[in-house]
Amino acid sequence: MKKTKQLFASLFLMSLGLGTAQAEYTLNLRQGVTQISQDVYDLHMLILWICVLIGVAVFGTMFYSIYHHRKSKGHVASQFHESTKVEIVWTIIPTLILIGMAIPATKTMLDLDDVQDAEMSIKVTGWQWKWEYEYLDNGIHFFSSLDEASNRARQLGSGIDPRSVPHYLLNVDHPLVVPTKKKIRFLFTAADVLHSWWVPDLGWKKDTVPGFINESWTYIEKPGTYRGQCAELCGKDHGFMPIVVIAMEENDYNAWIETQKAGTEADEQLAAKEWTTDELMAKGETVYANNCASCHMADGAGMEGAFPALTDSSVVTGDIDAQIELMYNGKGMMPAFGQMLSETEFAAVVTYTRNALGNSVGDSVQPAAIKSLKSSAPADEEEDEDDEE
Amino acid sequence: MSAVVAEHDDHGDHHDHGPEKGLLRWIITTNHKDIGTLYLVFALAMFFLGGAMALVIRAELFEPGLQFVEPQFFNSMTTMHALIMVFGAVMPAFVGLANWMIPLMIGAPDMALPRMNNMSFWLLVAGALLLASTLFMEGGAPASGWTLYPPLVLQTGAALPFAIFSVHLLGISSIMGAINIIATIFNMRAPGMTLMKMPLFVWTWLITAFLLIAIMPVFAGAVTMLLTDRFFDTSFFDAAGGGDPVLYQHIFWFFGHPEVYVMILPTFGVASTIIPVFARKPLFGYSSMVYATASIAFLSFIVWAHHMFTVGMPVAGELYFMYATMLIAIPTGVKVFNWTATMWKGSMTFETPMLFSIAFVVLFTMGGFTGLMMSVAPSDFQYHDTYFIVAHFHYTLVPASIFIIMAAGYFWLPKWTGNMYDEKLGQLHFWLSAISVNVLFFPQHFLGLAGMPRRIPDYAVQFADWNMVSSIGAFVFGFSQLLFLYIVIKTIRGGTGEEVTGEVWEDASKHSLEWTLPSPLPYHTFTTPPKEIPTEHF
Fold it and tell me: Which residues of B touch A54 (CB under 8 A)?
């Protein structure tokens, strides 16, 4: 009785909180937006129904027996046992059912594996804790991490109601944009640890393994926004690296490509201008919150035994070039931010760490200086090539 | 001269002595009943520790947003909860039952290797304490999931070598236990107790012991490779040095899949022991149950990569592991059909052990159904690493293994202690557990299908409702287990005061040898082998 009351109480409590949640409320697997996801859904339902039927038969028999064959009803136990015939029957029937399941499953598995004849390729790299996307056909390249609103709300004791944040934990700063009605091949790898790229509406997930490349493909019929998450435990912020895929009609997609290219130019112009320390500090604060605070903490105190403090750190208060070098190339668990941040963001966050979080070194660095660092790195490679020649 | 004779007589009396007095009894004991008790008490303690960690997890997941713990600590909790429940609670509980029951069921005076028996218990305690101590180390306890996948596990702080060494200790302890069980069953059976006359609990443990000997060294090897990768510059699992992180997963699951059967095969044995007693019928197909157990054990070695469908295997590999995994449904089906046929036309009564056993058959079958769904590789591309998986393996562990361990407790406690447990409280414990376990785990199927990944400390708001229901179930289930603790303590201290016969349960002595002995059991039993073997099941 008590149990039932508690259940009703909880259901009542839930109904208060439904609000925004209700729209996406679901109990079953999603049918998704691709042929594969539909095939997987059909397989899922087929086997679910097989299980339900077997369950009804077995549990029905069992409960009939429990109800009728009880001592309190005066039922006398019959002593039958051992029947090879019966054993053979209940071995053969499940075998036939399994063969019936294996045939459509094999077909879908072969389709899922067929990455041939793709019209475009996107390389996906998993990082702790963001995704890197590289459009291999036109050179567009960006990182995608949890959006700012979710990031603020998800901090321990933030006091922000997650229900007030649109698409809480399922929104990113830079979504992956793809065209509809094109076979897209994905190449997966990882920079640090294992991750797994999963958008339920596409019908599959694929692990990203550092040092190895996995493949998969999709063909999306309908334009729309499809959300997913990292599915392989990848450390502390595993729950906070969502995936957003926006599928657009070809025309819109081409327009998007153009804006991306224009955006890259705008970034370059920004990086070329002279920044004041105040501008750098203001930008640095946002960059710090989005990229650094999850390990080094919002106040720079770090986490003892795991992540060093930045306040009074010998690196952050020491030689600025050494700090830039460490952040640029990474070290141990510290990722190589040289690839992840733009020149402007990089310069801003270096300046910020040296003059905030309880530090007051007083110096700063310009985006242009970082840019020269960036352009010197590929130059090294070219020199190597020259040597080979 | 007479003094010498008297001394000699004393010595003769010593041969039949009771237990050592005081605490020392429990430390130096080589008696299978004492060691069985130690294992069971230890398992119960670990069950509460691992359960407390589960409640930390469910408290954090009660609502979206982070309320109580940092994500890193949350990950430590999921990791430690699993390791402690698997290696500290479920496995030791079954070793405890094996220690108590195998000698009694085969008519042997004790285990074959009593001193090693003592040592394997205390190594278990050492291993578990070492594991628990990592919680207080710099950088926190391991937080990479119980599977300890590299490269993530290599980011563990100071705890890594200690966790690895604790796995070694737990492994050595398990192997010793397994060797002892095999030696006992092969050498100590009473005259007339042929292999095909052994109770099924003995059979399932014999097969489990072989699994343990085969797999524990594999796991020890895998974690040792992690150790050398971290400290001795090897690169087994590092692509930069020519290694492969996925290699670890293959080795781990070659251990890991049989490992989950280590936790379920003895469960089958206990269920096959309890159901016939309360149905007042012989087990329907004794020999087919033995063969089914052996088939499941064999299959468990050739299906490991179904835990890795999304890791990027060649399609031929995906198909092979799908087909092989589907095959497991056949012997498992044979088991479920046999239990049902055993109940059919019986004369059933529903004391607490029977209630837990019936719940086991029903709820384990549900876990089996989701297992069958997951064996289908393309579907697993959606299910993998979601709460659907969490629901699946908890159905096969909590209302299966844990329920059966509790059923075994209610079934044999009167035999062990000579006191009857309180039937009303026992049934209350059953109904609380059986209902709350479903409130706890059933909604997790919905969460997984709707797209909630496992091992996340916070979730999107559309997952909020079922997480709340699940957490409520978790707390009711968790606190209901305190009732079990109370019932056990009360039974040990005198129970209901009811007189308990040697048989305890009606006609139980037709089923197995332990019921031919008096209750409570004397400290030493079957010092001379039994003359007759019960014939009910063949």
Answer: 369
